[in-house]
Task: structure prediction
Amino acid sequence: MGWHRELLIGFDLETTGTDPFEARIVTAAVVEVRDGEIAGRREWLADPGVPIPPDASAVHGISDERAAAEGLPADRVADAVADALTGYWAAGVPVVAYNASFDLTLLAAELRRHGLPSLGDRMGGAAPAPVVDPYTIDRRVDRYRRGKRTLEAVCAEYGVVLETAHDAVADALAAARLARAIAGRHPKVAALGPAELHRRQIEWHAAWAADFQSFLRRKGNADAVVDGAWPLREPEGTRV
Result:
């Protein structure tokens, strides 16, 4: 039947910024998707504990005032999201996130910041898996396609409707639908089991990072470093 026709868990964060080690969660969504439709959903609004920059508010529409008035404490949101995701992983259900290394790295950083158990701790020491990242997969299976690789652009390429970009629920649903669409177009991806697909994405991301780093250095940026870790990056100083 293929993993893409089974239950998928869409996951998305909207945040205070673009650095996953420094940015904070503002909204989060974990969406159960069956046959491309929502079968269940959980969403959170957090008070991030820091000002939300105006450019971030302009993207996701959440102001400091709303976050302070309606949001849960940031540690409670991070803890709840982590528990939700690890529950699905423990059951072998794939979690789908577009550009997963951003969202999962940011979640891991929030857990660390608040002294909460890590994703790995919650998994009994196992790595969080399986993860499906349409961004990583599309970049591999259609390497030479021109144009942007934003969620909006890739959804358009595969005919997936993205109803409200930068709304956590809408983005999580679109990511899951996009994973189905990519697997439908590329039978070799659909034929992989979730565990093998997870392993392949680790390899694909590492290969892309090495190629991109070489490209940047050839273009004159001799010190360019592109992190090859996926789906979780480690902050400087903790890497082995």
Summary: The CA atoms of residues 11 and 30 lie 5 Å apart. The first helix runs from residue 54 to 60.
